[in-house]
Design a protein that fits this description.
By secondary structure, this protein is mainly alpha-helical. Helices cover about 65% and strands about 5% of the residues. The protein has ten helices and two strands. The chain has helices at about 30, 35-45, 50-55, 60-80, 80-105, 115-135, 140-165, 165-190, 195-200, 205-230; strands at about 235-245, 250-260. A two-stranded antiparallel sheet has the order 1-2. The N and C termini lie far apart (about 65 Å). The mean pLDDT is about 90.
Length: about 260
């Protein structure tokens, strides 16, 4: 049985041909397409600074975990090792769990917790730790955990979309879902239609997944921040801005706190 550190010890092998550009890098494009995680992660930490100071400094941790996902994804695609696969999947699990803990509206908490966020965070952390441990024994556990969280987040976003009349929030939700759908389509196509893509010598769909999902992250982050503000920061006015300029047709979203207002 090969070591978990060994190259190609993972059962997962993506469509890109292995070791085409380097003897050290199994999947060249799938490895270096993760560079976008190291661009958007620090940039969002900077852009969301004023919001994080008001809401929670744990938001910096979410951005750090996002970069950790990129790092472990690079390691996995460079080696295709079993350890790389586990680290890649576990880091994604902890990223989702961290966002879950910070931004989950209290009205969606399990009834036995009431609206107690500290207890909810403890429940999420314990569940994530158990899933992490079980993933070393049965790696398929991680897939179920990731899919469960993703489906629940989509459910919450759909519910909030129906509730809100905020045009900015509705626009962000629409863009986030479209980006996520394109990213997921790239992932599924690379995984299950590999023979077709190999026939036309196009091996880059998983690389495209990395780029699209890293672009989805800022949109998803700002979407959840706006949803959360409705419940946790009702006295604050949040404005969606776009980097580098609001007037550009394409930009990176972030939120800016422009003032306080009191509701009687």
């Amino acid at each position: 049985m090969p070591s978990i550190f060994a190259y190609q010890s993972s059962e997962v092998d993506w469509c890109e041909s292995n070791f085409q550009h380097s003897e050290l890098v199994a999947e060249f494009y799938n490895t270096f397409s993760n560079v976008t995680f190291f661009i958007f992660g620090p940039l969002m930490m900077f852009l969301m600074h004023t919001y994080a100071q008001k809401r929670s400094r744990y938001i910096y941790g979410v951005c750090v975990l996002f970069m950790v996902v990129g790092l472990f994804s690079m390691y996995f695609h460079m080696t295709l090792s079993f350890l790389g696969q586990l680290l890649d999947e576990i880091s994604i699990l902890w990223l989702l769990a961290s966002g879950y803990s910070i931004w989950m509206p209290r009205c969606y908490f399990p009834t036995f917790l009431g609206e107690n966020r500290p207890q909810f965070i403890c429940l999420v952390v314990i569940t994530t730790m158990v899933s992490t441990f079980l993933s070393f024994l049965r790696p398929t556990v991680n897939a179920y955990a990731l899919n469960s969280i993703a489906v629940h987040i989509l459910y919450i976003v759909f519910q909030e979309y129906k509730k809100t009349n905020n045009k900015e929030l509705r626009h962000l939700i629409e863009v986030s879902v479209v980006l996520w759908a394109f990213a997921l389509t790239s992932w599924i196509s690379d995984r299950f239609l590999c023979s077709f893509w190999q026939q036309i010598n196009f091996f880059y769909l998983h690389s495209i997944w990395h780029v699209l999902i890293s672009i989805t992250f800022p949109y998803g982050m700002v979407t959840m921040a706006l949803v959360d503000a409705r419940y946790e920061m009702p006295e604050q006015t949040l404005k969606v801005r776009y980097w580098p300029r609001d007037t550009w047709p394409v930009g990176l979203p972030y939120v800016e706190i422009i003032g306080d207002h009191k509701n009687c």
